[in-house]
Amino acid sequence: MAAIVALVFIWSALDWRQVTSVIERLDPLVVFVLMAVLPLAGFSISVVYLVAGAKFGPLGGGAVIAAATAIHLLAANWIGRGFLRAPIERLLEKRKHHLPHMPPGENVAFATLAVLVPGLPYFARNYLLAITEVPLRIYFWVCLPLYVAHSYLTILVGDFGRNLDHTTLLILGTVYGLKLAICAYLIWRIRGRFVRMKLANEETAARPTST
User: Fold this and answer.
1) Model's pTM, two decimal places?
2) What are 181-196's pLDDT values in tens digits?
3) Which end of the chain has fewer CB atoms at under 10 Å, N or C?
C-alpha cells in the first residue's frame, strides 16, 4: 500500500503526458517480456502494474498481467523447487530452522495468506510458496486470480494518471484494511491448527505403548 501511494505521488509529479507518450511508443512484445522476466529477479511489481495500465489500459492490462503472473508462478516454482531449494535448506539448517509443514487442509489458506500479507516483496512470496509443501496445482489457481485482482488497484492508477481524488484513495485504504483483516483471520486459523496438531502429537507420545 505504501509503495502504491509513493508511486502515485511520483507519477503525479511527472509530466503524465510525456510519460504516457514514452510508454505508448514502446514495443508491446518487449514490454511484455520485461514484465514477465524482471519481477523474477526482484524488480518492483508495482511499477510493472503501472506500466501495464498506461500501456494496455484496464482490460488489456489485466489480461497481460494475468499472462505475466502465470509465468512468474511457474518459473518461481521451477527455480524454487530446483537449484534454489538446496541452498535455502542449508541456510535454514545452519540457523537451526526448517521449512514449515502445513497442517492438513490449510494449503489454500496458506497460499491466500502468502499473497495478501503485507511487507513481503512479490518475488519472495512466489519463491516462498515454491519451497513449501503446498502443491503447485493449488497455489497457482489460488494466487493467480488474487494477484490479478490486486494488480487492478495499481493498473487503474497507471491508466488514470493524475485523475486521483480522495474517493480513490479512500477505496485504496479500504481494500488495504480488508486485506489486513483477512490476513489476521488466516494467521489465527493456521496458528490454531498448528497448536492442535502439536497437542495431538504430545498426547500420542504420552500414551503408554501396549506390549
Assistant:
1) 0.71
2) 776 766 677 667 666 6
3) C
